[in-house]
Design goal:
This protein has a single domain, classed as SH3 type barrels (Roll), CATH 2.30.30. The mean pLDDT is 92. The protein is built from one helix and five strands, in the order βββββα. The termini are far apart. The strands form two sheets. A three-stranded antiparallel sheet has the order 1-2-3, with no helix packed on it. A two-stranded antiparallel sheet has the order 4-5. The relative contact order is 0.14. By secondary structure, it is of the alpha+beta class. Strand 4 and strand 5 form a beta hairpin. Helix content is 34%, strand content 34%.
């Protein structure tokens, strides 16, 4: 999380996109905590090491998707 807001709200950074979410379901969260977000609500906290591993895997999957899309876009004659 990058910012705590009033009324059990916070701002998170989702891959460069900042979004306001509810933190009502997760007690004791703080700025710099990693949280699992589902439909605009934090539903759990995750430790930084696990968060970094998960984000790295998401990055690898995105790269593989981009490579696959590029391969399908090639036209062979």
């Amino acid at each position: 999380m990058v910012e705590l807001l009033p009324n059990e709200q916070a701002v998170v950074d989702l891959g460069g996109i900042r979004k306001a979410i509810s933190i009502a379901l997760v007690s004791g969260v703080a700025v710099a905590d990693y949280v699992i977000v589902h439909v605009g609500h934090a539903i759990g906290r995750i430790d930084p090491e696990e968060a970094e591993r998960t984000l790295a895997l998401f990055g690898e999957m995105a790269a593989m998707d981009a490579q696959d899309a590029a391969a399908h876009d090639k036209v062979t004659v």
